[in-house]
Amino acid sequence: RVGYCVAPAELMDEICKVHQFLMFSADTPMQHAFAEHMTDPQTWLSLAAFYQRKRDLLQSLLAESPFTLLPSAGSFFLLADY
Q1: Which of 8, 30, 32, 57 is the residue whose CA sits 20 to 30 A from 43?
Q2: Can you say how many angstroms the Cα of residue 52 is from the centroid of all Cα atoms in its chain?
């Protein structure tokens, strides 16, 4: 996840407070929605393969770039050094 926000310092102080709690927790209605979604195994059983295909595609597209791709076995994350 990469994101940027530019704002006056006073506003950024408040944005950082909100960001701290939004990025690392899920609100109660969202938790109920996720629980309902997870009752159908087909909605999540294929996620590993889905994300692996996306990672492999990005890895193949970056193969000829100036980035050095670092191993990340057991994960769909792609680590790159420049």
Answers
A1: 57
A2: 13
Give one DSSP letter per residue of 6-28, joined into a string. Answer: ---HHHHHHHHHHHHHHSS---H
The reported pLDDT for the residue numbered 30 is 85
Contact 81, 67 (CB under 8 A): yes
In whole angstroms, what is the distance from residue 36 CA to residue 3 CA?
29
Pick the residue with more confidence: 73 or 70?
Answer: 70
DSSP per-residue codes, 29-66 = HHHHHHHHHTTSGGGTTTHHHHHHHHHHHHHHHHTTSS
